């Protein structure tokens, strides 16, 4: 992780860390860099979520891009995966998404995508970071020059790109969802319109919450990180299934007809079996992270499917999928990647693919047969200094692994001022004890 860009973009409190001035500079340096590298006027596409500050940052990025001669195509409120799709399919040189994903409304972020719709290369991120700190070494020691006259860039309303993405999602379905009642939670974020449009076009009767954004209520008691709202909706209305997205809809957590939560791990199990039955699970392999439940690994193995374990982060998942040839991967948090359709995690693609399995199965019952979750507890500890908070933690964690015979992962968050603790073992009590001991040490570190 760099000084500004973490595992999922440049993220922090809007107006304090992620400012209009810094957004302008990001747009300016990217527009100049790609223009110079390609030796032509470059084209970028920008999307945003529903936060109040997203409008400020969107216009600042566009101003930076156009000031150096790049053209900025504006998707308006849309999902991160849609920016990835449009960047890749419509021939843009790079894409930018303004969102802080599952964070509260007062945070915001800038996510950068390359021309393949994947997370921006580390080399380019490094150049952007240096420029934000006033280091012009990569530009011959001089600041990036502004464009003049006919060379100034322009902004283009590109809502057509978002509509094309909706059409893409609808096209993924192989059958009608008529007769199914589906609950949708848009998190008052990017998916609040798109999700309903897709599932109603496919014939389902939809029941929706989290579809009234006001700029300050994104992820507020709704969405994939507050799943109880969707559980209540599904059970109260006797729905067949429910899907909850986060602020920028690159995550999806499901709920079955009984209100049971279906995490990214269970989603990968369902999709692995579905794809394998169709002969589409290349190498019979699935990529998951160190935070995935051990029950997933065991259940996949029993089905003759290998679980390739990697570090946390959807970029790491995608990179590992590329290296191993896997076509399915993801995280317990609901980032799931189906590489046949996307180059990044897409909550709406996940929901459509789960529905394909549900329809083919005649309902949700039975899709998780053979899957058993091991006891696992996750705790988030707020910190002000992630490095200082981790002092002595590795040694203590190793000791607890040996003494309690558990699997323990302790890591600073790449997107929030938190240290995340995950413990998994034969009993919930041992997991809780490990989390308590680690948390006390972190708090002792100040």
How would you summarize what this structure contains?
With 446 residues, this protein is of the alpha/beta class. Helices cover 38% and strands 21% of the residues. The protein contains 14 helices and 19 strands.
Q: Helical region count?
A: 14
Give average pLDDT, whole number.
Answer: 95
Strand order of the largest sheet: 1-2-6-5-3-4-7
Pick out the low-confidence regions: none
Largest sheet: 7 strands, mixed
* First and last CA, distance: 22 Å
Q: In percent, how much strand structure appears in the residues?
A: 15-25%
Total E-strand runs: 19
Helix content: 25-40%
* Shape, per Cα inertia axes: globular
Structural class: alpha/beta
Q: Radius of gyration from the CA trace?
A: 22 Å
Search tags:
446 residues; 5-stranded mixed sheet; 38% helix; alpha/beta; 14 helices
Explain what this protein looks like in three dimensions.
This protein has 14 helices and 19 strands. By secondary structure, it is of the alpha/beta class. The mean pLDDT is 95.
What are the SSEs and their pairings?
Blueprint: E1 5-6, E2 9-13, H1 20-38, E3 43-48, H2 52-67, E4 71-77, H3 80-89, E5 94-98, E6 107-113, H4 122-132, E7 155-157, H5 159-171, E8 181-185, H6 194-201, E9 205-209, H7 228-236, E10 241-245, E11 252-256, E12 261-262, H8 264-277, E13 285-289, H9 294-302, E14 306-310, H10 314-324, E15 328-330, E16 336-338, H11 347-361, E17 376-382, H12 386-389, H13 393-404, E18 407-412, E19 418-424, H14 428-444
Parallel strand pairs: 3-4, 3-5, 4-7, 8-9, 8-10, 13-14, 13-15
Antiparallel strand pairs: 1-2, 2-6, 5-6, 10-11, 11-12, 15-16, 17-19, 18-19
Helix pairs in contact: 1-2, 1-4, 3-5, 5-6, 8-11, 13-14
